Amino acid sequence: MTDVRPPAEAPAGTESLRDAIAAELLAARARTAALTDCVEDHDLTAQHSPLMSPLVWDLAHIGNQEELWLLRNVGGHDPMHPEIDPLYDAFQHPRAERPSLPLLPPGEARAYAHEVRGRVLDLLAASPLEGAPLLDAGFAFGMIAQHEQQHDETMLITHQLRKGEPALAAPPPPPAPADAATLPAEVLVPAGPFTMGTDIEPWALDNERPAHVVDLPAFRLDTTPVTNGAYLRFIADGGYDEPTWWTPEGWAHRQQAGLTAPLFWRHEDGQWLRRRFGTLEPVPLDEPVLHVSWYEADAYARWAGRRLPTEAEWEKAARHDPVTGRSRRYPWGDGSPAPEHANLGQRHLRPAPAGSYPAGQSPYGVRQLIGDVWEWTASDFRPYPGFRAWPYEEYSEVFFGPEYKVLRGGAFAVAPVACRGTFRNWDYPVRRQIFSGFRTAADVSDHGEA
User: Fold this and answer.
1) Are 387 and 211 in contact (CB under 8 A)?
2) Burial 103-139 (b: 16+ CB within 10 A, else e)
């Protein structure tokens, strides 16, 4: 994927901002095309899991949201096809119902999205990118670029759930770190305040705002995400059979769903295998564990004598610079992600081995906080103090509450434009089809010992 500097780093001037926006929109559309052109029409219209939409729904929904926010709200244009709006309203139709809707067939969905994009690029060329709130720093355009990339991640999940021969080209694996064996198991994050959230990130979404000070006690955090090898020890020790390690809700779900290992794993002929985008392969012991629910992550942490970090702990470890006292955009600094920093943008189609990307570590020495796997935290999805829904309530506000747990950091499937140190993701604690993993934390006693 193309790495384009976001407006916070772009050289001064409307034209450079306009170029950066266009590049993000085009990169997102190229990825959308790659995810939808690689399969036949029957695969686009099929529902590969009741948890996911047909790929053709995502394709037209991307175009519909782009038309709604950019052509109509920003440009003041009349609706192109108002009759299809209800079909692609995510709140009107749950995913399980979408295959039964009179959706645009693949050819028409592509043509619609293509026509919208052409008009949007014309609109971008004429927009002042300042003045109205939706135009300030190109926010509405950035929101749509992020939206498309988020749906690209969703479509990649659908590809993982899809049965049959692999449809995606297999990229090279990520390089292994040279110093993984010498890394400490955990780092100490000292007590003290830090600034959580943001007021200045130009394309930050409403749930990332406002910036506010959080004072935390000292804690210890895993240097890397929990690996498949470590998780196999939990399985071998009977972790799935011992209710002591599970919350009551988690144990009930583990029994009802028959959980015995991460999703897509199987034990065959004495070895553990996993299915990854249509390919069956041995489980790589050094990669971060993937496709585990919050309940599984929490049970592992309890078994290990630890706990999941809170959302605030995760963000402090990822953003706080103890030397300057300020919060960075990313663990490595304020510069946008480059290939040496993190595994993002569907570049490798798998997590990198634990300990990878030393250039991307935080000031505390924590690695892979950005990219590789979404990391479950202990926190419910709640608004920050002073939260204001914008530009619409349905983006975040309707999801606040104890039903959803927060994930942080992004995965290999996440595009750089939709990933930063303040970015918040959320999902039900039972979800496993997402590219989710975790790391663990521990309290620090008054004597400085965990």
Assistant:
1) no
2) bbebeebbebbeebbebbeebbeebebeeeebeebbb
Distance of alpha carbon 331 from alpha carbon 340, whole angstroms: 13
pLDDT computed for residue 447 by the predictor: 41
The whole-angstrom separation of Cα 358 and Cα 9 is 23
CA angle (174, 172, 372) in 5-degree steps: 35
- Average pLDDT, integer, range 373-377: 99
Q: What is the pLDDT of residues 76-102, one digit of tens each?
A: 999 999 999 999 999 999 999 999 999
Cβ distance 338 to 408 under 8 Å?
no
Q: Which DSSP string do the residues of 189-204 spell out, in sequence order?
A: E-SEEEEES-SS-TT-
What integer pLDDT is reported at residue 175 of this predicted model? 87
- Give the residue extent of every domain in the chain: 14-161, 171-450
Tokens of 105: 């067939």
Give the class (CATH, top level) of 14-161: mainly alpha
CA 22 to CA 76: how far, in whole Å? 20
131 or 272, greater pLDDT: 272
Q: 193 pairs with which residues across the strands?
A: 215
> What pLDDT does residue 13 have?
75
Return the bridge partners of 196, or none.
Answer: 212
CA-wise closest residue to 74 among 109, 30, 122, 111:
122
Q: What is the pTM of this model?
A: 0.95
CATH code of the region 171-450: 3.90.1580.10
Q: Could you tell me whether strands 436-437 and 441-443 are parallel, antiparallel, or unpaired per DSSP bridges?
A: unpaired
